[in-house]
Amino acid sequence: MRAIVTPGLALTGFEGETPDGQQEVQFIRSLESPDNREFMVLQYIRKPVMKKKLVKKVLCSLLLLLPSAGVLAEDKVLNVYNWSDYIAKSTIPGFEKQAGVKVKYDVYDSDDTLQAKMMTGRAGYDIVVPTSNFMAKQIEAGIYQKLDKSKIPNLANLDKGLMAKIQDADPGNAHGVPWAYGTDGLGYNFTKVKAILGKDTPLDSWDILFDPKYVSKLKGCGVSVLDQANDVFAVALHHLGKDPNSKNPADYQAAFELLKKIRPYITQFNSSGYINDLANGDICLALGWSGDVNIAKHRAAEAKRTYQLGYVIPKSGAPIWFDVMVIPKDAPHVDAALKWINYIENPEVNAAITDEVFYPTANAAARKFVKPEISNDPSIYPPESVMKTLFLLKPLPSDIMRLQNRLWTQLKTGR
Ligand code: N2P
To answer: Over the chain, what is the mean pLDDT?
Structure first.
């Protein structure tokens, strides 16, 4: 049984009996404070049937015994829901040791999955990590709480310029702290692709994916595309010379036509398994995320594969995005969540994550702890000349998101 009580709250709930009449069930759904902060109180009380009055009496005294917010017992558990392949091996054990909090860690590989879970409510997570453009809609829907920044002193380590980039999605950075950022680009098995397309074909172009003349030849060695409509439409729109964050439905129809032309050559839609597929030589081209492709490259080298893998940001430009840690309004362990955010923004903890998953972070103080071969790798930390070509994925109106998803299903199922 979990209990958190703040004085002055209204109580909602119901009570009844199990169908066999043997047990009394009391379910108190939530307590709501006047400022709309919600706290889970008790989930279920199941006990042998007692006289109603007695149940009420027991409950009342139970509530009186519960600690108030000020003297709340410290959280011993933290439920984190994060992207797959996004954390160092040392991150969780380090936090558990330092904070004395046990971490339950679940992963997803698409913003759509996260969004569906969060919008349904009561997911039980204390920390989730949406991409900033999705986060904006979720903040609007009121599902995240404002951060108590006094509990996150390590916020001082963050790069103000990068924080400013996500203020469109989260004004004043009131709700979120960036976990990492990255780009969308092309992951290659250079050895196989050059053998098929010829060593002089320029690989720093989206043409390799969007021009059937190239991609048709790569079908045989495997072509993977991220299973996230929003990213793929942004890239397709950009390739057509249209606004990658377009709000015009006709633009999406045009992007859909482009994608339909290459659909026969796409051998899989995938947002996590493609890392191993690339590392194992099961695909030779991937529209993927920067760190993921670099993880594949690293795994292939560790396994002493003879082929060369690599990540390329096409020279015409590519999406850049930020994934952001936020605390759901109904998070059961807010205090532990704030401790987690502060821990992640410790420069050495933060650098260890970049060293393992090859995603840069907005933590300026961490950069000097990142291994030099990683912090000097332009496919991981895009230099200023490349940064200028990147476009930020922005929040889109809900009808455009729905249109993207409808066209996406049609594309994948080929109907
Ligand atoms: C991590 C994927 C990064 C998420 N595996 C893209 N926003």
So the answer is: 87
Q: What is the helix (H) or strand (E) element at residue 108, kind and residue range?
A: strand 102-108
Q: In terms of Cα–Cα distance, which of 24, 129, 170, 4 is closest to 75?
A: 4
Kindly list the protein residues whose Cβ atom lies closer than 6 A to any atom of ligand 1. Answer: 83-86, 131, 182, 289, 292, 321, 323
For the stretch 34-52, pLDDT in tens is 333 333 333 333 444 444 4
Q: How far is the CA of 109 from the centre of ligand 1 (A)?
A: 7
Going from the Cα of 72 to the center of ligand 1, the distance in angstroms, rounded, reads: 35
For the chain, give the number of residues.
415
Strand partners, 108: 83
Identify which of 81, 82, 83, 354 to mutate to test ligand 1's pocket (most ligand atoms within 8 A of the CB).
83
**Cα(355)–Cα(88) distance, integer angstroms:** 8
* pLDDT value for 73: 62
Rama region for 55: left / alpha / beta (φ>0; ψ in -120 to 50; rest): alpha
3-state helix, strand, coil in the chain (%, to 5): 45, 20, 35
pLDDT tens across 178-202, in order?
999 999 999 999 999 999 999 999 9
- Number of Cβ within 10 Å of residue 234's Cβ equals 28
Domain ranges of the chain: 10-71, 77-181+323-377, 182-320+396-413
Domain 182-320+396-413 part of CATH 3.40.190.10: yes
CATH number of 77-181+323-377: 3.40.190.10
Query: Which of 133, 134, 181, 289 for mutating ligand 1's site (highest number of atoms within 8 Å of CB)?
Result: 289
- Amino acid at the residue 135: M
Could you tell me the pTM of the whole model? 0.82
CATH topology of 77-181+323-377 equal to that of 182-320+396-413? yes
How far is Cα 361 from Cα 341, in angstroms, rounded to an integer?
A: 13
